Amino acid sequence: MTPEFVIGFGRQAIEITLLLSLPLLGLGLVVGLAVSIFQATTQIQEMTLTFIPKILAILAALIIFSPWMLEKLITYTRTIIVNIPTYVR
């Protein structure tokens, strides 16, 4: 194993991690921003008001995006397992 291979392997792992977490984190960010704007306009400063919409939005996004996320993860894992003999050399 060369240092370039290890760096490339780590880069792929980071890329797949970011790709899988992006829809959930992005939707959480959008919902959090919308709740913050709602709180600022209505002057309701309840701390628990931010958590429930975010949790529900992330749960909905997880249900919607889970087939795509699972397909990406299975493809990545299958590629790693198939290439184990070439990695060992």
Order of helices and strands: HHH
Structural classification = mainly alpha
Work out the radius of gyration.
19 Å
Number of strands: 0
What average pLDDT do the residues reach?
92
Low-pLDDT residue intervals, each spanning 5 or more residues? none
User: Can you tell me the number of structural domains?
Assistant: 1
Percent strand: under 5%
Helix content estimate: over 70%
**What composes the largest sheet?**
none
Overall 3D geometry?
elongated
Question: Helical element count?
Answer: 3
End-to-end gap: 7 Å
Note down, in words, how this protein is organized.
- With 89 residues, the protein is an all-alpha fold.
- It has one domain.
- Helix content is 87%, strand content 0%.
- It contains three helices and no strands.
- Helix 1 runs antiparallel to helix 2.
- The longest helix has 40 residues.
- The protein is elongated.
- The mean pLDDT is 92.
